Amino acid sequence: MILLLLLLSIIFIVYATARWKLHPFLSIISSTYIFALLTNLVGTLNGVEKPLIADIGKEIAGGFGSIITSIGLVIIFGTLIGKILENSGAAVKMAEVVLRLLGDRHPAIAMTVIGWIVSIPVFCDSGYVILSSLKKSLAKKTGVSVVTLAVALSTGLYATHTLVPPTPGPIAAATNVGIGPDGLFWVIVIGLIVSIPVALAGHIWARKVADKLPAELDEATETFEEYKKRFGTLPSGFAAFAPILIPIILMAIGSFANFPVGADTQGNKVLMTSGFTNTLFTFLGTPVNALFVGLLFAIFGLLPKRSEETLTKWMGDGLLDSAIIIMITGAGGALGAVIKATPIADYIKTLLDGNVALVGVGGLIVIFLIAAVIKTAQGSSTASLVITSTIAMPLLPSLGLDAMMGTVPIGQMLTVMAIGCGAMVVSHVNDSYFWVVTQFSKMSLTTAYRAQTLATLVQGITGIIVVAILGLILL
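Request: output the structure for the sequence above.
Response:
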């Protein structure tokens, strides 16, 4: 009965968000209270003397607070970096660097690579708006179909948006499934690995299918050089990439500094570094500290001038964006805490005993399908990442996804990847990103379904195939 209540609670979240247009935060919190109260009622009706969830308010507040404690500043710093990259012209500079490296002979590849890089810190819809004029100018210059370039850009952005931190969605999913700060660097590494074939699948779809579809987009009235002038003097290539690369490098250093290389005579682990060096590298490699360093690089390296406009308005806009994500993530943490307080995990374990098809790779596919259903039904990739990771957390041992590879939580990492792939499937009319792509590319609805919606389906399926192969090798 409690498992059925959880299923109905998920349906309520999807229905309230998609049909009633209720904000995901309110739909998740409302569902959490409904699920908790009905769970205690089921316990009472079945003769359980004490409530199954002793203090509902305490569980909800505790789950909400613990998630925000562990991830709140990480989301804020990552979002602020993205806002500065967006407003300062750094994203355009990244595009210019990639175009310089790849040239005009391969415009679709250039758009895919540009999108893949830009969406690591910048939300995919913001990235698409920023780079839309570049797409039009490149189409005019090379004669390649604007639909081809639109889909190459949109799928490149989408690949890292759901898979690679510091985009907030993957960070929230990693935290929800129990990956601590030490494991976040490895989530970035495996996310980059999985996102490459996912982006390539979107690129192939753009070249082979979208290239044949019509578009009504007006020809560009300005060249890329003219477009760049809107931002004034663009930052240097180093300044543009530093806020992304420096935190990743610091997290890598922190992980390697604490990598075990042996044991002493007492059996204690010997790490790669020790003493002050280990303390320094561990401090700088902690994700919240590494992202703060990245934010400092963004502020001092990218802001055209440190004024009220940049230090107050830009930062305020970024804080508003991050607040919404933090609230949804916190609501997901509250739901997760309530689920963990019930005997659902133990019951599912008894259902799965002896059923090897749903353990390991099979478990990854189950989680992928849950994320895909939630994404398709209510439209938000971030909400799908948060809700699915919340549901998955107590089930990981039963699904065989709590495996470790040395100190690396490989089972949890692959779970985040499976959720991220499911959160791509599919982008259609209830997804704001779908409308950003279609409106800025002037696609008809029919063309958009064939070009964008089916491309995201292909990307999600490609992603889970890659994750399943990694699961066969690593789990």
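The chain has a mean pLDDT of 86.
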